[in-house]
């Protein structure tokens, strides 16, 4: 059947359905991004501090350097999920999971010039990098990233606590 405008009704109906699906998809996508904080609403698009030019990027350190810093009294920060922290962690470490990082960092009562060593599960986990950057931006001046993290520490048989006995 052809409409008064000369366009077949099938094409007009298909065009209406396509526009309807496009609008629904757009609304669902924007809703998801708004709820999860990802995409256009994510942290990369939020306001940043006025000046971060004097902030040093955290140094990535190997196991041997982490051991030396542990022995000298550096503060260790476990960036894994709280559940994993409870299963076991480096002795004396503080738990600052990525999910609650901003609040946990604000509540951290450690001198800003104290050496902090941030770790996660190992090379498959990047939260230590994110927490390390957040600590640096918060004004901590000596932040180190022990990237091989919990797995390397445990395999080396070094001091741990928590977990099942």
Largest sheet: 5 strands, parallel
Whole-number tally of structural domains: 2
What is the level-2 CATH architecture name of the largest domain? 3-Layer(aba) Sandwich
Order of helices and strands: HEHEHEEHEHEHE
Q: Uncertain regions: pLDDT < 50 for 5+ in a row?
A: 44-52
Give the N-to-C terminal Cα separation: 78 Å
**SS-based class:** alpha/beta
CATH topology of the largest domain: Oxidized Rhodanese, domain 1
Helical amount? 40-55%
Radius of gyration: 25 Å
Instruction: Report mean pLDDT, rounded to a whole number.
Output: 84
Q: How many DSSP helices? A: 6
Outline the structure in words.
- The protein has 165 residues and is of the alpha/beta class.
- It folds into two domains: 9-45; 59-161, Rhodanese-like domain (Oxidized Rhodanese, domain 1, 3-Layer(aba) Sandwich).
- The protein is 41% helix and 14% strand.
- The chain is built from six helices and seven strands, in the order αβαβαββαβαβαβ.
- The protein has helices at residues 9-36, 63-71, 82-87, 101-107, 127-137, 149-155; strands at residues 59-61, 75-78, 89-90, 94-95, 115-119, 142-146, 160-161.
- The strands form two sheets. It has a five-stranded parallel β-sheet. The protein has a two-stranded antiparallel sheet with strand order 3-7.
- Strand 5 (115-119), helix 5 (127-137) and strand 6 form a beta-alpha-beta unit.
- The chain starts with 8 loop residues before the first helix and ends with a strand.
